Amino acid sequence: MVTPEPLTLYTADGVRIDAGHTPFDGEVCFVLAHGFTCSWRQPALRRIAAALGRHGGVIGLDLRGHGRSGGHSTVGDREVLDVDAAVAAARRRGYERIVTTGFSMGGAVVVRHAALHGGVDAVISVSAPARWYYRGTVPMRRVHWVIERRAGRMAVRLARGTRIAPKGWDPVPEAPHEVAGRIAPVPLLVVHGASDAFFPVEHGQQLYEAASDPKELWIEPSFGHAEVAAAPDLINRMAVWAAKAVSAMPAPPVPTGEPPERRTRD
C-alpha cells in the first residue's frame, strides 16, 4: 500500500485539517470524507483509498474534531469547509476532475458541499442520512446520546478521540435532502445498503428523489453501513462510475500560467 503524502490544510474558518494525498498520473482525484468517529488513517479508509487510488489520486482527510485535525465536530454542518479545503488542495495539485466521496456523515457532508459550495465534477454519497435527527434504529439512538449528552461526548472523546461541539446547531443547517437538488448538473451517485443497521434504505431513496438529473441510486442487497462494510468490488464499481461520469462532463478550462505547486503543507 502506497504511503500518502502528508498534508496540513486550513479551512476558511481557520480550522487545521490533517490529510493525506496519494498521487496519480491522471486528471481525476477522489476527496474522501469519513463517517462519524472515523479517520482517514484507519485501516478501512486506507483500504478504500487504495482501491480508489487505482483510478485516480486520493486526498483523504480527517474532518474537524476527528483524528489529528483541529476544532470540534459539528456533525455534518461546518464540515463542508473541510471538504472545500481538500478540493482546493486537489486543484492546486493539477487535478482537473474532482470526485467527492463520503461515507455516512461524510456522505451527508459531500452532498451539502456540492450543493452549497460547488467546484466539483461528481459526487458519491454512501450510507448517508437524508435528514437530520433520525432515531428510528438502536445505533442511531446511541449516536444521538453521544452527541447530545455531556457524558456521551466525554465517552467518545476518550474512546475514539472525537471532539464534538457542545452547543449543537444554531441555526439548524439544511439537511442533505433539502439541498440535493442544487447539485445538478454535476452527477450524483447515491449508494445505500439494504442491510444498513443505522439508516434504512428510505434515506437513500429520499436523497435520490430530492436530487436532479444526472443521478443514480444503487441499493446494494448485502451491504451494511459505510466504510467497514464496503467491499472492494463496490469501491471499484464506484470508481468506474466516477470515471464515466466525469468523462461525460464538459471539458474544464485550460489552465494558464505556471503549473500548480505540489506541496505537503498548504
TrEMBL record:
A Pfam family reported for this protein in Swiss-Prot or TrEMBL: Hydrolase_4
Domain Serine aminopeptidase S33: 31-156
Signal sequence, renumbered to the chain: none
Protein origin, superkingdom: Bacteria
The protein, known as: Pimeloyl-ACP methyl ester carboxylesterase
UniProt organism field: Actinomadura coerulea
